[in-house]
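Exercise 7.
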Amino acid sequence: MRLRLAAFTILTSIACTAVAQTPGYDEQYQAARALIDAERYPEAVQAFSKMLEASPRNSDLLLGRATANMRMKKWAEAEADLRLAHEASPNYTDVTVALANVQRWRAPSPELATAAGYTWSAGLSASRTHVGDQNWRDYTASIRHYFTQGSLGFEVLDARRFGLTDKAYALDGYTPLWSSAYANVRYQRGPNSRLFPANSWRAEVFQSIDGGWELSGGIDDLGFDDHVKLYSVGVGKYTGNFYLRWRHQNIVSTGSHSSNDRLMVRYYDQGDADNYMEVNYSNGRSGEQLELSTGRQTTNSYGVSIVRYVTPDWSVKAGASLSRSTNAPNERSISVGLSRRW
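Solution. The predicted structure, written as tokens, is:
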């Protein structure tokens, strides 16, 4: 009897010691957060994943794992966790802010999402292009409203070329689709159709995949007297603070065909999704109609631009480009823009 009692006492002591040594939820959570602070992101993901096995809809744990994945630029994984956390806790401010940030980082265009706390933006831009002995001028005024997901903008465009002046009006929207996908849809109306097409529209779909890659495909229809259609495919890649994108376009109209390839490199030099520097290069070749008349035309274009937020609300943008063509004058362009968000 004494032997059994002693054995029972020993086993009870061992069990109590094991329970006492097993870290609780708070200790495990703080340890996982410490791994993020120590920049040990893969280990942090493993730690949060292990805790999520017992509580798969815990918003704090989902946010923690998303944070570690964001630090590794794994946007698709981070967004998936943040969407689950938002569904579980729709009023969790930190989750809402993180979801907005990851959408901004993933967006090749700032029109998809803006910084948390802002729902509107407006801008003015102007460009001047020197072509041969002519100077072309273009102006754009825009206003955009940001929803919880996506945005809708209205634009007024003004063009002055060849001694003519024309205006156009456009609606430009971005909307999420299925997981890690969104679309850009645009409709533009030129009532006078002197320089702008009478009607034009665009639809382009973007799909993110593992590894920081993004694929896209789209179509533009320009409603000139001779309709012009532009078919495009693109591949983007996020790596560190860089975003690289290649886009190919086939441009088709009656009796003519041309193509264009454009490579863009954007560097987020401030480590945020607002400020960046960008360089781009494009190469285009004309189609059958031009080839039969004057020979195949080739165009090489080079461009640079920079965006700076001088305050949290106000930003400025400046750019310059040069285009060299066979059988056509060179084009030199400069542009400036000012925008505000609130």
